[in-house]
Amino acid sequence: MNAPTRSELTLDLAPLWKPFTANRAFKAAPRLLVAAEGMYYTSHDGRRILDGTAGLWCVNAGHARPEIVAAIKRQAETLDYAPPFQMGHPVEFEAAARLVAHAPTGFSHAFFCNSGSEAADSALKIALAYHRARGEGTRQRLIGRERGYHGVNFGGMSVGGIPGNRKAFGQLVAGVDHLSSTHDLEHNAFSRGEPQWGAHLADELERRIIPLHDAANIAAVIVEPFSGSAGVLLPPRGYLARLREICDRHGILLIFDEVISGFGRLGHNFAAERFGVMPDLITCAKGLTNGSVPMGAVIVREGIYETVVNAAPAGAVEFLHGYTYSGHPLAAAAAVASIGVFESEGLYARAQELEPYFADAVHALRDKPNVIDIRNLGLVAAVELAPRPGAPSARAHDAFLKCYERNLMVRFTGDTIAVSPPLIIGRSEIDTLFGTLGEVIADIA
Ligand code: PXG
In CATH terms, is domain 6-61+346-443 a member of 2.60.200.20? Predict the structure, then answer.
């Protein structure tokens, strides 16, 4: 690998406006990744960096998988692009069939887009179109949850509940309400796996939100099975099942945003299977192509596609929604190859096997200074630190920078450090990951 050293970095950093990044601080001290293979990145200053976050929760099978690279290359040479509207190409159909087969039983159709944000907005629109097609067009309200993250487009941002992501952006989509967050350190700190306390928080839907609006005006509830971006907030035991029951009682669609939780993160194809709770729609992205080519999808339960499609006159476009790059040939080829790798390697079973070891390793950090909570499930974990007085998130930010100096990439949000490695991680790499993180937490105390 020919990674440039820091002194060879002659890039002009000025013209790029970086997303979700402190641009000025970053350009003053850039962190560039120039290559990746398996569990490791190569940094621009020539170091091997252990990928503790599967990129950004997406490279579940590890980097530069030859099968996926070859599929993308082959596809680019054969058919680089085809219009998705009123035209088709074989690989988008193949990708849909693979994805639906990979989805829980009862899911029948996939709608493609290019990101998790687009998947969230597409799912919300499908929910509205479905109710309208059934003659229940009054069902327009959308319910999200505090601290939820459903991307950055207006629909997903509006049902999302991370204050900083919303407050600069005006009126948002009207008619949205939020359930309370389930995160509660007083009751659940240092839970191993699903926390015990808090299933009753789902009852808010029936007790507080439905009476405000009348169920006949509510289209859908959207939640992440576990919140990733907000700092790995796990659902209390029984919570998702209660949400399901209440939605069923009132004809409300339940959408699981599985952009992070899908494709093996919890040791199952989708978190719906891990929790034994089936939503009506699943959004996914990230792991769908192992992070290699942008792609998102909405997968719907049997009956939803038929209802929308059959309500339109013969020959009419039934759902006026889609993207120039819906089902893009390169993305579709990457999805087929990625699902192929996940399945043929039994990668999710491997994640299940590693889960207890991974859990022990993260919970061993319990006595490090300033640690106020540790959470884990599948191959995802979080260590929450006490904020420095007057400087929220500074401590976790320091931990992130110090880990990177020590050749480890982690995520931080607020004062929580999140870890979600590729599912190919080995035990010794788990030791290195949490060993380094533990040293760093002690050093910055
Ligand atoms: N839904 C969920 C649950 C996500 O985690 C999105 C939607 C949006 O996906 P796109 O592809 O539009 O980015 C996400 C994205 C973090 C972090 O800090 C996580 C995401 C994005 C940015 C940062 O953990 N997840």
Answer: no
